[in-house]
Amino acid sequence: MNLQLRPMRLVEVLAALAFLVIATIAVLTIAPNGITSASGDAGQFTQTPSGPLGPADRDFLVKVRQAGLWEIPSGRQAQQRAGSARVKQVGLQLVADHIKLDQQVRALAAKLGVGLPNVPNPDQQGWMAELSTKTGEDYDKTFADRLRAAHGKVFAAVSLVRAGTKNNEIRAFAQVAVDVVMKHMTLLESTGKVDYAALPTPPPPSPNPSK
């Protein structure tokens, strides 16, 4: 009896060991691909003293920097080309706020090791070129429309980072940026020059919104 069982037990043990080896290889193969960031990118988080820094966090810093790169010169340009006193006032406020914000984003990016651009993105360059061809009322409307639309887009991105970042310093700065963007949207709307019909339609609500 024992002579018959021993070979069977040996086979069972070998089978169990083979299963464990295969399972271990599978886990090691699959697990790294299963660890993803909130933005869906794998393996792009870095550890910092203030917490994990992910792709969305770095993109947020880039967007804040780029906003200043075109809004500061545009706000200054408005002082010569705008026809409305209110547009000129709003332009000055945008300049003042973005100078402060730019100082903060450059300091934080340097601290977290994030590279920042030194020129506006292609869309922003196009808006600046467009504004440079206009004066008076035409300038006022274009200034208000382009900057209000741009603030609406960046507001959505900044809000998502504020809601989901795992980095304490990014969270604090995102709160500052959210407040500034909200302030600027309100200021631009106060000019009475924003064409709301031209703004993108908000996406429809989810049929099963999460709580």
TrEMBL record:
Residues 56-186 form the DUF4142 domain. InterPro entries: DUF4142, Ferritin-like. It comes from the Bacteria. This is DUF4142 domain-containing protein. The lineage of its organism: Bacteria, Bacillati, Actinomycetota, Actinomycetes, Streptosporangiales.
